[in-house]
Amino acid sequence: MGRLTAAITAVGGYVPKFVLTNKMLEGMVETNDEWIVTRTGIKERRILKPEEGEGTSFLAIKAAEDLIQRKNIIPGEIDLVIVATATPDSMVASTAAFVASEIGAGNAFAYDLLAACSSFLFGMSTAASYIQSGRYKKVLLIGADKMSSIIDYTDRTTCIIFGDGAGAVLFEPNEEGLGLQDEYLRADGNGRKYLGMDAGGSLMPATEETVKNRKHFIYQDGKTVFKFAVSNMADVAARIMQQNDLDYTDVAWLVPHQANKRIIDATANRMGLDSSKVMTNIERYGNTTSGTLPLLLSDYEKQLKKGDNLVFAAFGGGFTWGSIYLKWAYN
What we know:
Blueprint: E1 5-14, E2 18-21, H1 22-26, H2 33-40, E3 44-47, H3 55-71, E4 80-84, H4 95-103, E5 109-113, H5 119-132, E6 139-146, H6 156-159, E7 164-174, E8 179-187, E9 195-196, H7 208-212, E10 219-220, H8 222-243, E11 253-256, H9 261-271, H10 282-285, H11 292-300, E12 309-316, E13 320-327
Parallel strand pairs: 4-5, 4-6, 11-12
Antiparallel strand pairs: 1-7, 2-3, 6-7, 8-13, 9-10, 12-13
Helix pairs in contact: 3-4, 8-9
């Protein structure tokens, strides 16, 4: 019997039907398609409209159902459901608990995990630890965010970047040495003044005044966030390679958070990777926050081969960031 590792054995994804293009944004804020594409790499993003569904849970359920259908698994066999999200349905009742019930995972316990754009990355570490403990066999990790619910569409520093979407992965035990190999995860609480949302929590509960002053939308200091994201995402990706004696020829794919094409390119350059080894879908979805990494896996699943070395990297508000090295487990 080999060393027990935690491997991804199935993926799923979902994006809403409504497409918000750069051209549409030109009529909403002072911007244009060329400016957005040049600075971010984003051409369009998906938005969840009420007529299709409501809440982050809707997106998470759809992604989970896609995974269940692709893998043909029995929901009742799932031991744990984790929903990585920055936009839970509500502040008290767990989004994950509702999702687990709706997909038929009645034997699972469930909870939410929040670390901004690093939520799914941190969730990978958490899910893998449950598997490696030997106590659980199937952990469903979902990254989902309805960012349109906290975006001010009169603020061009944020409304051009974010979209709605969700992705899901299933972690199971592996004895072939595949799955999660190593991680390097970090946080710096001083970063919350540069990227966050003022109201809605215990620090600033909702009042008539907070609503009037638009305190329930996210804000960011673009230049500061960009600077931190470029350096930290590139640094941790390079470090995870160094820790595991990997060079650019050993890495099959970089799986980067989809915040900005320039940040993605800087990370790939630091790793010495050609663009053909970099997963991207930012041009179609924008930044779906917790959904970016699993949506990439869903989109690229058919190109992945058993034994491929994948390096994940993310950076999020708070600040949170990190990198994970994983060996793909199936063809």
